[in-house]
Amino acid sequence: MGSNLLLQGDSGTGKTASLKKVLSTKNGYHIFVSGSTTETAEKTIRALINTTSKGTERLLSEIISFLHTNPKIIIIDEVNRIKNMKYLFDLLNTIYRETGMPIIVASNRKRILSDIELDARKTLLFERLEFKSYNAHELKAILDQRISKIRESLNVKIPSASISFICAKATSDGSARKAIGIASRCLINNDFSEENINRINNKMEEEEWTEFYNDLTQTDKKFLKVCLELYASGKEICHTNLMPHLNISPQRISQLITKFVKDYGVFRSYYLNKGGVNFGGRRRVVDFSTQEVFSKLDGVAEWA
Fold first, then answer.
1. When you count CB atoms within 10 A of the terminal residue's CB, does the N or C end of the chain come out lower?
2. Are 105 and 76 contacting, i.e. CB atoms less than 8 angstroms apart?
3. 129: helix, coil or strand?
4. How many other C-beta atoms can be found within 10 angstroms of the C-beta atom of residue 75?
5. Alpha-carbon gap, residue 98 to 148, rounded angstroms
6. Which CATH number, 3.30.2130.10, 3.40.50.300, 2.130.10.10, 3.30.420.10, labels domain 5-131?
């Protein structure tokens, strides 16, 4: 028996690395599944055991029976990549109720638990462990450790100033994965110039925004596209202007706004008070967090 655990934090903050480090000492006591590979709730649950069973009820029965005789911790990495995530947590809720096996999930999204049903949230009762973004000094320590072995084995010269510049670029995300990625591409090209580092950084940012957009649900994408169109035309992004373009309830629009503000960080919201109803009243208005964020998302959405 053990507590269920949610590891949350931005990409590259060490969630997967920490999991693998701990699990390397407990081999055989866990089942590890990555949401980036399974992508759907059904495939994720099916990946827990080696089975060809068809039908959700039969599949759950087999998993529960297996865990009763082979107790294991269930670990799902990158759970935010799973499209029908609410359904996944409903299935996990059933498994946990029947077996009591601890469940660990890792997510790049904050407030991910707000998207699951109240019953599942109360039963699973995840403890949260926040992985904070790295600062430039921490990134440099990580990169220096990785590169020291490369210098010895390949006998290559890697300027210290270039490493510091790479870390400065990666600080905006606080991601060790990004810093290591830039350094790796510089090594492959044997080019540690500032121009090459900037080029690689820009390319990686484009890839990250594209991945972010592709991971959105169809409802999220439609909502985002309407927001982009309103912003580009100089109109306020608010319920009044969103409603004619979205076939969803005002409550659902509020949920989407909150998700894009608090979970994704691409919007900021504030309230405008223009007096009485005849003057516009008090309403919640959304804006993109920066002009750069708007430009990146506008480019990705147009290309998609």
1. N
2. yes
3. strand
4. 23
5. 49
6. 3.40.50.300
